[in-house]
Amino acid sequence: MRAQRTHPDVRRYLWDGVVITREQALAAVDESIASFAARRFGFWALELRGGGALVGFAGLRPIPDHDDIALY
User: Fold this and answer.
1) Alpha-helix residue ranges (DSSP H) falling in 1-72
2) What dihedral do alpha carbons 66, 13, 53, 2 form, nearest 10°?
3) Highest mean pLDDT among 5-9, 20-24, 37-41, 66-70
């Protein structure tokens, strides 16, 4: 998980260049779990077939203070 939240290309698009803390990353996971329960969508882990190595994530997330949903 650390490599995903600290990689410059990931930070550039998701966290405005900021290296988020482990706690912030875990909060995003908790938010996704709650979103699945309430809205039936959130983030999915992307793993290599056969090896199970985490290579990223993708999913849907509500845009704060808006009715639209963003694709990540």
Assistant:
1) 2-6, 8-14, 22-39
2) -100
3) 37-41
Give the Cβ contact number of residue 8 at 10 Å: 8
SS3 at position 58: strand
- What is residue 49's DSSP assignment? T
Paired tokens of 12: 């550039």
The separation between the first and the last C-alpha atoms of the chain, rounded to the nearest angstrom, is: 16
Give phi and psi for 25, each to the nearest 5: -65, -45
Residue 61 to residue 2: CA distance in whole angstroms: 21
Q: What residue spans define the domains of the chain?
A: 2-71
* Segment 12-31 mean pLDDT: 83
Element (H, E) at 61: strand 54-62
